[in-house]
Amino acid sequence: MTLVILKKRSEFVRVAKVRNTVRRDTIWVQCLQNEFSGVSQFRVGFTASKKVGNAICRNRSKRRMRELARLFLSDILSDFPEFKGDFVFIAVPTTISCNYETLNQDFKSAVRRCIKRSTPASNDKS
Predict the structure, then answer these.
(1) pLDDT truncated to tens, each residue of the chain (126 aa)?
(2) Is 69 in contact with 3 (CB distance < 8 Å)?
(3) The whole model's pTM is what?
(4) Count of beta carbons in the 10 Å neighbourhood of residue 79
(5) Domain of 92, in residue numbers
(6) Which of 37, 57, 64, 108 has the smallest number of Cβ neighbours within 10 A?
(7) Does residue 46 form part of some domain?
(8) Is 114 helix (H, G, I), strand (E, B) or coil?
(9) Residue 64: which H helix or E strand, with range?
(10) In a domain, 81, yes or no
(11) Residue 124 within a domain
């Protein structure tokens, strides 16, 4: 699956302003529900601050998050067909050092929780 990537700073800031952030030990996820007209149902962005480490560590953490998004994001979103929006995945220092299975579980649970928080229909049910 090909991901549509957020590239401009303004897109990242728009997602962050909503303050819908789910934090896990190995990854943070921000999402914004919106009705943009595009080919894709969702767009994604990846970021890692200098707190994560040097450039090699930051790039490695973003590669790990990109691969998880490529493999699992469309499967997760198939459970939420009404969701259209943007995701920003933020690396933390443990993103690099954790094993793949832990990162995978945190990724999936954080994305699901973030979508549930941002979808109005699911907010009415809880």
Answers:
(1) 678 899 999 999 999 998 899 999 999 999 998 766 455 678 999 999 999 999 999 999 999 999 999 999 988 988 888 888 899 999 999 999 999 999 999 999 999 999 998 876 544 444
(2) yes
(3) 0.88
(4) 9
(5) 9-118
(6) 37
(7) yes
(8) helix
(9) helix 55-77
(10) yes
(11) no
